[in-house]
Amino acid sequence: MSVEALKSLQPAHPRSFVPAGAKLGDWAQLEPLFFKLEADAAKIKSSRGLQDWILKCSELGAAVDQEGATRYINKSCDTESAEIKKAFLHFVEEIEPKSKPHWQKLKELVLKSPFHERLPQKRWAVFLRAIKNEFDLFRPENVALQVEESKLETQYQETMAAMTVQFQGKEQTLQQMGRYLEEPDRSLREQVWNLIRERRLQDREKLEQIFDALLELREQIARNAGLPTYREYAFRQKNRFDYTPKECEDFHDAVAELVVPLARKLQKRRAKLLGVKPLRPWDSGVDAKNRPPLKPFTDVGQLVDKCYSIFNRIHPDLAKDYDILRKQRLLDLDSRKGKQPGGYQCSLEEARVPFIFMNAVGLQPDVETMLHEAGHAFHALAVRDEPLLNYRSAPMEFCEVASMSMELLGAPHLTEFYSEADAARARRTHMEGIVGLLPWIATIDAFQHWIYTHPGHSRDERKAHWLSLLDRFGGIENWSGIEDGRAYLWHRQGHLFGLPFYYIEYGIAQLGALQLWLKSKKDTNAAVTNYRKALSLGGSRPLPDLFKAAKLKFDFGPKTVKPLVRAVQKELKSLEDA
Ligand SMILES: [Zn+2]
Fold first, then answer.
1. At what angle do helices 420-453 and 230-237 cross, to 10 degrees?
2. What is the DSSP letter of 355?
3. Distance from the CA of 247 to the center of ligand 1, in angstroms?
4. What is the per-residue pLDDT for 492?
5. Using CA atoms, how far apart are residues 367 and 139, in angstroms rounded to an integer?
6. Quick one: which of 75, 297, 413, 549 is 20 to 30 A from 156 by CA?
7. Ligand 1 midpoint to CA 367 (Å)
8. Residue 375's pLDDT is what?
9. 168: number of CA atoms within 13 Å, CB side?
10. What pLDDT, on a 0 to 100 scale, did the predictor assign at position 121?
11. 531 CA distance to ligand 1 centroid (A)?
């Protein structure tokens, strides 16, 4: 069944170019609209005319985007309906590929227009910079290679998804097996962990082959674009204008110097509390005091209402925004049969409202997900008045500041769900999670920098480098007897296969979120006001300006990281007994 709330959504602003009843999932209706725009471009007589024309493109973009998003949301809420699946696949297999050359053409028309240089710079510089870059990077001969690339990525996903093991009399996916790693019974955890490891290693050869083939393709794609390495290509392709590999290395160095020692200290504490020596890889998922998981709510209505109270306690304006989701039922939260796993926030670009999807089962990670996705939703609502579609989304490095900040700002108010003691336990787990994640981000990012700047490396060299990174950023857990599991640990990180170089964003954003959290401790009102102001800029300013608007430093080196680690340490100390 399709999601009810999506059926009655109205455009935030009346359409002026797209016909009111147009069905944008129907190519016969959509294609003439592209032709119309292409023809209209010839009639542009001034920079004002060019702006109006770009806004028409933007209106079409938003309407098409919303059509795709609606089909995606419907599919994730009901994976069993053949009709919904068909509608979704029609969009990704027919509408999107057929639209692509037209979008490319529209970019070209902007850049070829003599009026583009006369657009007011302050307003248009970021837009022009992005489309010029995308246009310049485009090579027709890369299109086929990118199709090959996505086929290999699908092969990787299918290989991973097909992994199952026999356990306790039934066939289980590795995802299902993950739950047992939280069990207090250590020998059970060890058994499960080894089953997972052995299953992954069974496909080691296949995964290495897929990866090698991906590397070859990516090097070719970069060469075709006239760039010396795929790293340069990836930075360009991600519109990373405001930081370079050098800043990424600063991040790696800061994490190695300041975060890794803390992460290892926390592992020692864990080993002591669990009473194990040495700590083994299967000891990291269980509660350090062997307690059963926290149970914050029993039905999703409670999750929604209590998060409302949390936002109200942070700042009433956040609660007001959150209420839009609640009132318009732009939420599908409970876990039920036939739903896609995971959680996300998705913007409906024409109605200019967000939608939150998740699979809540009544555990603390559900609360964190809700706070996180609500942060993305606040971002979407903050840019509602921005007429240009391209400016209604910010770079990922800042989008995640919006969401990760809400996890941190919400943490003091977890007493909406828990006793004081349980809230402290949830806060501690969250903080430890942040400390654990930063070194992993550095590991994955540093690995990719090495891989793509060492073309022609052998599998053994790759393995050796991976292991050296784990020595630098990894934990104190003991791997003796299971060294092969450590050597190929990276196989499970899908980003390396499917989303190359996409990962450092989370690290950059986490540093921003921690800064905002520190500011909120001094003055929540001011921190939230700056946060909302920065969110409302959407993607209309360069990345450093977005950080600046939120009064955050855009810097990933030790100078920025040090005070943050100190604050995290202090927080953990205050939660010592939790
Ligand atoms: Zn997010």
1. 130
2. E
3. 22
4. 94
5. 44
6. 75
7. 14
8. 98
9. 9
10. 94
11. 16
How remote is the CA of residue 374 from the centroid of ligand 1, in Å? 9
Q: Which tokens go with 96?
A: 């999107």
Question: Where does residue 337 rank: exposed (0-12), middle (13-18), buried (19+ CB within 10 A)?
Answer: exposed
- The 10s digit of each residue's pLDDT in 294-306 is 999 999 999 999 9
CA of 163 to the centre of ligand 1 (A): 27
Q: Please write the tens of the pLDDT for every residue from 256-273.
A: 999 999 999 999 999 999
pLDDT (0 to 100) of residue 338:
87
Residues 267, 286: Cα–Cα separation, whole Å: 12
pLDDT at 414: 98
DSSP state of 383: T
Distance in Å, CA 528 to ligand 1 centroid: 18
Closest CA to 462 of 256, 229, 204, 224: 204
Confidence at residue 179, expressed as pLDDT on a 0 to 100 scale: 86
Residue 404 alpha carbon to ligand 1 centre in Å: 7
pLDDT tens readout for residues 402-435? 999 999 999 999 999 999 999 999 999 999 999 9
Count Cα neighbours of 472 within 13 Å in the Cβ-side half-sphere.
20
What is the average pLDDT score of the chain? 96
Q: Measured in angstroms, how far is the CA atom of residue 295 from the centroid of ligand 1?
A: 23
| Ligand 1 geometric centre to CA of 342 (Å) | 12
Distance from Cα 393 to the centre of ligand 1, integer Å: 13
Q: How confident is the model at residue 354 (pLDDT cuts 50, 70, 90)?
A: very high
Answer whether residue 181 shows pLDDT above 80.
Answer: yes
Tell how far the Cα of 399 is from the centroid of ligand 1, in angstroms. Answer: 7
**Contact status, residue 394 vs residue 538, Cβ threshold 8 Å:** yes
Residues 6+ apart with CB under 8 A from 97: none
Sequence-distant (6+) residues with CB within 8 A of 266 are 432, 435, 436, 572
Q: How far is the CA of 400 from the centre of ligand 1 (A)?
A: 5
State residue 342's pLDDT score.
Answer: 86
CA distance 108 to 183: 57
Q: How far is the CA of 506 from the centre of ligand 1 (A)?
A: 9
Token pair listed for 202: 């069974």
